Amino acid sequence: MNAPTSIKEFFESGYRQFLPHVSIDCAIFGFHDNQLKVLLLKMKNVEGWCLPGGFIQWAEPANEAAQRILQERTGISQVFLQQYYTFGEPERNKEPNLKDLIDSLNIEPAEDNWLFRRTISIGYYALVEFSKVTPTVDLLSDECCWWDMHELPKLLFDHDLMIGQALQTLRMQLNFHPVGYNLLPEKFTMPELQKLYETILDRPLDRRNFQKKMLSLRILERMDERKSVGPHKSPYYYRFDKNKYDQALQAGILLGF
């Protein structure tokens, strides 16, 4: 079945393709200019922003739906994506903002329209390399762009809670799974890797301790090339050993940040 091509069609018959009552919202994190950023959408004719999201097709597994939504909004696939929470408050999507959108589009859905009913959202977070992303709007939005986590705009529905929960989960995961492969370029210095961890945790880390912990994981390869950053400052470049990195993701680690 073809996807709806207009908002009117989506409101009137989207339930034929998508499972009602269950949606997916993705907190997509990127790292750029030493800032942790999250990808947000600006809904048409509505004052506020939201996370990229969508519904699950009737015969589609939830994880595949999340990957599809991620690829539609970023243009990339096969990235780290993890389910982190289920948001199920009864009134979570009962906002006047949705009515404002409907009024501005001159459509008149029935009061029992499938989009007005209680919806439970499955939250996923993704880690992507900033430079590879092409932010792309969806049917209900007219802007899609990155926002610094310290300068977020007004968020719709319960998406402030979603972002907070995603960041809390990511911070906890730093203790048990490596991060960086999907957030950093192919080669990077140890200070750059440390800055990534400090940005996510929002606090400084001891340089020697951090380097010792990361090297103990045996997931890094030191390259012969150095980065010239000034007199007497030429740190080595590193890169991840993809096989060992994937093994660490599967088996888990214990860092204790």
Structure description:
With 257 residues, the protein is α+β, with helices and mostly antiparallel strands. The protein folds into two domains: 7-175, Nucleoside Triphosphate Pyrophosphohydrolase; 186-250, Arc Repressor Mutant, subunit A. The protein contains seven helices and ten strands. It has helices at residues 7-13, 62-74, 96-104, 159-173, 190-201, 207-216, 242-251; strands at residues 18-32, 35-43, 49-50, 53-57, 80-87, 120-127, 141-148, 188-189, 220-226, 236-240. The strands form two sheets. Strands 1, 2, 3, 4, 5, 6 and 7 form a seven-stranded mixed beta sheet that branches. The protein has a three-stranded antiparallel beta sheet with strand order 8-10-9. The longest helix has 15 residues, at 159-173. The mean pLDDT is 90. Pfam families: NUDIX, WHD_NrtR. InterPro entries: NUDIX_hydrolase-like_dom_sf (IPR015797), NUDIX_hydrolase_dom (IPR000086), WH-like_DNA-bd_sf (IPR036388), WH_DNA-bd_sf (IPR036390), WHD_NrtR (IPR054105). This is NUDIX domain-containing protein. Residues 19-169 form the Nudix hydrolase domain.
